[in-house]
Amino acid sequence: MGGNEIVGIDAEIAGAIAEKLGLTLRIDDMDFNSILAAVVAGRADIGMAGMTVTEDRLESVDFSISYATGVQVIIVAEDSPITSVDDLFEEGNDFIIGVQEATTGDLYSTWDLEDEGLATVQRYRRGTDAVQSLLVGRVDCVIIDNEPAKAFVAVNPGLKILDTEFAVEDYAIAVKKGNTQLLEAINSALGDLIADGTVQRIVDKYISTN
Known about the structure:
Layout: H1 9-21, H2 32-41, E1 46-47, H3 55-58, E2 61-63, E3 68-77, H4 85-88, E4 95-100, H5 104-114, E5 119-124, H6 127-135, E6 141-145, H7 146-155, E7 159-161, E8 167-171, E9 174-176, H8 180-195, H9 198-209
Parallel strand pairs: 4-5, 4-6
Antiparallel strand pairs: 1-9, 2-9, 3-6, 3-7, 3-8
Helix pairs in contact: 1-8, 1-9
């Protein structure tokens, strides 16, 4: 199995699925924005990166059953005027929001806030870059998945996660459109791994680590 240096919930679940199907897993680490393109072009068989199902994405790829629930949270400085998600929706505030491009945080803050004229979204290739911009005051908050958010806050004094969640979504595996044989195999293996508790054990392992 290649790519053992890459760890995380997605990598371990992918490994468990490959093992159950008798396949060899090779993990290619790439920018989130490149994953769907790689699946569509056939450069990757599956895409897994805390990816949620949206209507736009369904136009390009098919998705498996859900394997985990993702919670989008808001990171702010400890003295931030933003105290809840409701503050972002107040008319006239126009905060600058940092996100990792093409992620759920990007999509939802764009649809719900920027497109409505309530905020400006600043997009970064990596979540780390968005958090660094928050630390130096270039953005007012960062909207990102709960798990990396906890890790970022743990190593960056002066930041906190707001109690109110921005969005809750189910994560699934992207497969090239029309590849029903692979999709059915993944769904079967994933269903077994959910039923026997393997998926939950993997998720719990990383949540407790953070």
